Amino acid sequence: MSFSHKHILGTRHLSPQDITLILDTAESFKEINARAIKKVPTLRGKTVVNLFYEASTRTRTSFEIAEKRLSADAVNIAASSSSVVKGETLEDTAKNIEAMRPDIIVIRHFASGAADYLAKRLDCSIINAGDGAHEHPSQALLDLFTMRQHKGRIAGLTVTIVGDITHSRVARSNLFALHSMGAEVRLAGPGTMIPPGIEKFGCKVFTAMDEALAGADVVMMLRIQLERQGRSLLPSLREYARFYGLNRDKLKLAREDVLVMHPGPMNRGVEIASDVADGERNVILEQVENGVAVRMALLYLVSGPAPENP
Ligand code: CP
Which of 95, 115, 134, 302 lies at a 20 to 30 A Cα distance from 11? Predict the structure, then answer.
């Protein structure tokens, strides 16, 4: 099966066949990460620029590790130490980087649509590493990879996502990918944090956490994104933790073999109690580990077949 996408801008337009190919490809790359020598020549001669306008620990590091394990030349640019601070626009910055002929730009930006904007203006491949409150496709794909690894399937799973849905690019990318793959998606949180009309994308909405958790196969907790909220959408973090924080008692409502997931960074004691975050049902660090293999798969697939006469 071939992959027809030049860019990875979101999961919304990925077909179930695309998602399955990405997960299967990541499966073959995961083995490389367990070797003593974790390097293959697959992307030798390719140049990847990681252009980050927002802070990141997991995404930036795992893209860079993925690039290096595939033997690509990886270049990191943090907007805070670039000419962006002198007033250069996103388009000018990206076009100047493209003049140096990278093959792929991985971009994280605070504006929704930034990755699409570059894909329309540049010739190289663009991978969205998170754009505003819009999408974070590589995160959702590593989440599905982790679910499939544990449950053997995505179709038919009940996945409950709890938190600040309105500002969560992780929730949106997971919703599109999970729905496309046949999972039941439940979104839960205070009414002020759930976008009106989101049900049309194929999910169920809950404001009562207990109902959302009942019988869930997977519970994904999200951080309150205070940096994206123009005004406070909740009375206090203590009250939020009481109604929407995941603790051991609430977790008993889900299936006994539930997976507890979190994209990170976590706010322990707010959306998730420490004993649940570190408890026997959590797969949070497995998500991070799988992120390298999934990002290797994305870099490989957008690069297309190797030229016959390099
Ligand atoms: N999950 C995630 O995007 O984490 P970072 O912000 O650390 O990259």
Answer: 95
Query: What average pLDDT does the segment 285-289 reach?
Result: 98
Cα gap 191→206, rounded to integer Å: 9
Is residue 91 within 8 Å of 122, Cβ to Cβ?
no
pLDDT band at 310, cuts 50/70/90?
very low
- Between the CA of 198 and the centroid of ligand 1 the distance, in Å, is 24
Is 136 a residue whose pLDDT tops 60? yes
CA 134 to centroid of ligand 1, rounded, Å: 14
Q: What is the pLDDT of residues 187-243, one digit of tens each?
A: 999 999 999 999 999 999 999 999 999 999 999 999 987 666 656 677 788 999 999
Instruction: Pick the residue whose CA is nearest to atom 6 on ligand 1.
Output: 56
- Of 39-48, 65-74, 81-90, 299-308, where does mean pLDDT reach its minimum? 299-308
Q: CB of 174 within 8 A of CB of 159?
A: yes
Q: Which atom, in ligand 1's list, is nearest to the CA of 57?
A: 7
Buried b (16+ CB within 10 A) or exposed e, 224-262: bbeeeeeeebbeebeebbeebbbeeebbebbbeebbbbb
Mutation choice for ligand 1 from 57, 136, 292, CB with most ligand atoms inside 8 A: 57
- Which residues line ligand 1 at a C-beta cut-off of 6 Å? 56-59, 130, 139, 263-265
Is 136 an annotated catalytic residue?
yes
Whole-angstrom distance, CA of residue 304 vs CA of residue 4: 9
- Residue 109 annotated to the active site: no
5 is catalytic: no
* Residue 59 annotated to the active site: yes
Residue type present at position 194:
I
